[in-house]
Amino acid sequence: MRRRDFINIAAVGFAGVGAVAVVVPLIDQMNPSADVLALASTEVDLSAIQPGQAIKTTFRAQPLFVRHLTDKEIAEADKVDASTLRDPQTLEERTVGGKKQWLVTMGVCTHLGCVPLGAGEGENRGEYGGYFCPCHGSSYDTAARIRKGPAPKNLEVPKFSFTSDTAILVG
Amino acid sequence: MSFPWAEHYAPKHPLMQWVDEKLPLPRLVYNAIGAGYPVPRNLNYFWNFGVLAGVALVIQIVTGVIMAMHYGANDLVAFSTVEQTMRDVNAGWLMRYAHANGASFFFIVVYLHIFRGLFFGSYKAPREMVWLLGLVIFLLMMATAFMGYVLPWGQMSYWGAKVITGLFGAIPVVGEPIQTWLLGGFAPGNASLNRFFSLHFLLPFVIAGVIILHIWALHIPGSSNPTGVEVQGPQDTVPFHPYYTAKDGFGLGVFLICFATMLFFAPNFLGHPDNYIEANPLSTPAHIVPEWYFWPFYAILRAFTVDFFFVPAKLLGVLAMFASILLLFFLPWLDTSPVRSGHYRPVFKKFFIILLIDVAILGYCGGAPAEEPYVMISQIAAAYYFAHFLIVLPLISRFEKPLPLPGSITESVLAKYGKADGEIAAVPAE
């Protein structure tokens, strides 16, 4: 290799590395900023939610459903053979720390992202008694598993943990 | 880059001569859209739509820049500043309605321009690059229109942004990080709105740049024409100015009458009432549909309802939707028939009409709710769309027997008009 070729390759190579180094922040600036990430976890106080009630709150700017299941609803969910379901999961697998009465799910239909009904007082809960999506008629059961309609998956259960008996940290 | 018999720019005024020596911009214009650009003498009104698309872009840029003067790209105020533009800003309603309907009219003329190209074989050699650049413009237009629709921050804006960015989420492994990166968050929010505004302002100027390349590439072989027979001599052409400036001027008048009618008498006809409700992440509109110009592609997206091997239905739909446009990039090599114009291709002509009907059906289904029978109809129509380009066109090109072509453009013009009246034949273009 001639000396000139070496200088040429080294110079262009160095400029290339520099260009890539500049592109990284240009692309990375589009990722969620610190203030958005600061809201990436949400604390929910469960103490006021009575059995049979549900609340609608937000997690990562999207609706989050927190439901206090009744014993009857838990029994209904456990009665179903999970292996027969479209997205096979037991209520046990969809709850945390053996506290099967606390069902925490995203309020985002897995079909096209609509917000299902059922968390509010008196809303249509569909024929399986859980949630009902008014957009294209997906019905979810008391464990928020998909039972009927076009949605492919159960309502997503976000990662969460109990910080005390009556409070959870989602995210 | 022009025919040898093109008229030469020869400024008479000393000032123009002085300018021509320093910066030959008037010369460039003269050679591009003036008397210095010879054009086939037989262009019909379908050749108006390129110019009309350019005018539509200018309308969008002017009204858009004005609206940006009154708009606040922040999720707290975006909706109310748009309403303020409508109610309080002098002539603000006119700017916004012109911009919203202008987008629709831009797509109308561009779709006519594309179908003109499809019927008359304008994509064939030596004009492949013109076609490819046109498709790039089309993709940029779609991105620009989508981002613009998010800016009023109404319910359709918000949920449209959610559904469309959700498409990227269907891509395995990298999908969700890409979606989050595009939105700058986990759902559409202030970061998304702000970047969409920035890009919505930028992209039209990128489009203008690609249009210059599109015209540059066009002017190397020169315009095609309804016979598809190439120009052979000076008798086949007329200067762009005044012949086609006049013809385009007439078309522009018709276009503006249609545009004004829509703008002043039915400005919300093509919009959705839901977009006059401010964005609410906790409540979904019952029926999410994109603007009409995306309907055919939306129908293809939703046509996939069952998983295929390991590929989920949602991903299939996304791939098919992008493929339906990317496919067009290969068109110059899929249609191998040497005959350009559909007028001389009897079998092609029939299937072209079927394609038109097919796209219309897809459009109708894309705007309809996602239920039967529309899902099944869009599945059949989507299948035909792909079959048309991948199977029908290559087969036709191979087996079709084209009708005899005229010897030249002039011969075809004389055959049509000359026999009846010898004088017209002698001075055909006047």
From TrEMBL, chain B:
Report the superkingdom from the record.
Bacteria
What family does this chain come from, according to its entry? Belongs to the cytochrome b family.
Q: Which protein are we looking at?
A: Cytochrome b
Quaternary organization: The main subunits of complex b-c1 are: cytochrome b, cytochrome c1 and the Rieske protein.
Gene3D superfamilies, A to Z:
Cytochrome Bc1 Complex, Chain C
Give the way it sits in the membrane: Multi-pass membrane protein
Q: What does this protein do?
A: Component of the ubiquinol-cytochrome c reductase complex (complex III or cytochrome b-c1 complex), which is a respiratory chain that generates an electrochemical potential coupled to ATP synthesis.
Write out the annotated subcellular location. Answer: Membrane
Q: Does the keyword DNA-binding apply?
A: no
Domain Cytochrome b/b6 N-terminal region profile residues, every copy:
15-227
Q: Which organism is it from?
A: Sphingobium cyanobacteriorum
Instruction: Enumerate the UniProt keywords alphabetically.
Output: Electron transport, Heme, Iron, Membrane, Metal-binding, Respiratory chain, Transmembrane, Transmembrane helix, Transport
Q: How is the cofactor bound?
A: Binds 2 heme groups non-covalently.
